[in-house]
Amino acid sequence: MPLSKADAVLQPPLTPSEEPLPAHRFTSSGPLTGRLRVPGDKSISHRAIMFGALAVGETRVTGLLEGEDVMATAAAMRAMGAQILRRAPDERGIAEWSVHGVGVGGLLQPAQALDMGNSGTSTRLLMGILASHGVTASFTGDASLSGRPMRRVIEPLSKMGASFEASLGGTLPLMMRGALPAVPIEYRLPVASAQVKSAVLLAGLNTPGITTVIEPVPTRDHTERMLRGFGAELEVEEIDGERVIRIHGEADLKPQQVEVPGDPSSAAFFIVAALITEGSDLVIENVGLNPTRAGVIEVLRQMGGSIEELDRREVGGEPVADLRVKHSALKGIEVDPAIAPSMIDEFPVLFVAAAMAEGTTSTSGLDELRVKESDRLSAMAEALTSIGVRVVEHDDGLDIIGSGGAPLRGSANEPVTTHLDHRIAMSMAVAGLASKDGVEVDDTAPIQTSFPNFTDLLEEAGSAR
Ligand SMILES: O=C(O)C1=C[C@@H](OP(=O)(O)O)[C@@H](O)[C@H](O)C1
Ligand SMILES: C=C(OP(=O)(O)O)C(=O)O
């Protein structure tokens, strides 16, 4: 379908700005109350655009996260032939995205390097998709992404026949050539990573035969759920405590209507903000509660947090509920490392909850946090220490000695450093709510990657100035 002029002007610019925003001071101002909705799930939004671009026909998506990471995925899929546009919001204010796909195997060679901005998910999943397309593509990214490990996908995708030229150390910028036909493999994940799992499964989509991924530790399963929803033949079996996932290649994907639930990783900032701010009683609507993502709720409850699930239902094939969160006296616990994969992005804000708890919270088994947008263990240890929290950093975790509910000191003079990491910026903003002097965050621009209206929502909920 050709784009009408009206539709065309609704295509937002998809290239992220790398301009830092001025430092912002987050301070306490009162309880968080009322009701709010966080934006759509980032993992599901990336996949909705990617799978829509690989289906034949029009996929429509509501609730899409319009953050820079997802826009980087959309720009890349456009550059390889998919038509992607945003329709004007309806009377309820809901904007719908339309993706006209090219079919599995139908992506075109991009004319320019694919700029992945800050997004690991875009990079690794697209490398998987292109591994079984006969195209050459280059990937670039910002300073944070250019430091993140890509060998974890290069290794299995090379076994499938793709070839790569990466920077020394296996990082971006890199150039790859997909294999046509690629060869199916059976791959046991050496690291608990949904991105690596997804890269191999997506390469399997256009590969003759059956590609198998064995997952010793379960990670988020949106790829499996959504690929099935788009009509791929995919089986999941549990054998000797491991998940064995098989995808049948040369698949035909059928376009879908996707409704993206609210992102539990974004909701976590507001859950912790309400738990640590006296007098808070906040409802966060429409939060995705896929069991492979909901670990943070369980851990915060173990710490004594009052988090109630209202109106449990299904949205877009995912369990969802409204969460009612009340201020609670938290206590420190030892966090079971086995729960880490189901809350891997929530540790920075969990450390803030721990800083306000009574006693010590110990965490371990978190080596993966060192290879996210920043080294999140050292970034959070440095940031929390600088606002007066007692933190002990270990190789694979942090121990945090909580204040027992007493306000944190805050950053009177020096802003905290966010290292181009949205989750460090938002976690330290939440810490600001519980501080005497407020917390100054050096650069809030990275927040645009996953939660563009974070500061506005925090203000609306009553606690930011
Ligand atoms: O598959 C995904 O959508 C994601 C997987 C996780 O990364 P890893 O697979 O590197 O753990 C997570 O940290 C990231 O935010 C999103
Ligand atoms: C790790 C994250 O994302 P990505 O790997 O896609 O950059 C995140 O959002 O916390």
TrEMBL record:
Pfam families: EPSP_synthase. Pathway: Metabolic intermediate biosynthesis; chorismate biosynthesis; chorismate from D-erythrose 4-phosphate and phosphoenolpyruvate: step 6/7. 3-phosphoshikimate binds at K42, S43, R47, S193, Q195, D345, K372. Its EC number is 2.5.1.19. Phosphoenolpyruvate binds at K42, G120, R148, Q195, R376, R423. InterPro entries: Enolpyruvate_Tfrase_dom (IPR001986), Enolpyruvate_Tfrase_sf (IPR036968), EPSP_synthase (IPR006264), EPSP_synthase_CS (IPR023193), RNA3'P_cycl/enolpyr_Trfase_a/b (IPR013792). The active site is at D345. It is found in: Cytoplasm. GO terms for biological process: amino acid biosynthetic process; aromatic amino acid family biosynthetic process; chorismate biosynthetic process. GO terms for molecular function: 3-phosphoshikimate 1-carboxyvinyltransferase activity. Residues 1-34 are annotated as: Disordered. GO terms for cellular component: cytoplasm. It catalyses: 3-phosphoshikimate + phosphoenolpyruvate = 5-O-(1-carboxyvinyl)-3-phosphoshikimate + phosphate. Transmembrane segments: none annotated. Keywords: Amino-acid biosynthesis, Aromatic amino acid biosynthesis, Cytoplasm, Transferase. It comes from the Bacteria. Residues 29-457 form the Enolpyruvate transferase domain. Catalyzes the transfer of the enolpyruvyl moiety of phosphoenolpyruvate (PEP) to the 5-hydroxyl of shikimate-3-phosphate (S3P) to produce enolpyruvyl shikimate-3-phosphate and inorganic phosphate. Monomer. Belongs to the EPSP synthase family. This is 3-phosphoshikimate 1-carboxyvinyltransferase. It comes from Altererythrobacter xiamenensis. The lineage of its organism: Bacteria, Pseudomonadati, Pseudomonadota, Alphaproteobacteria, Sphingomonadales.
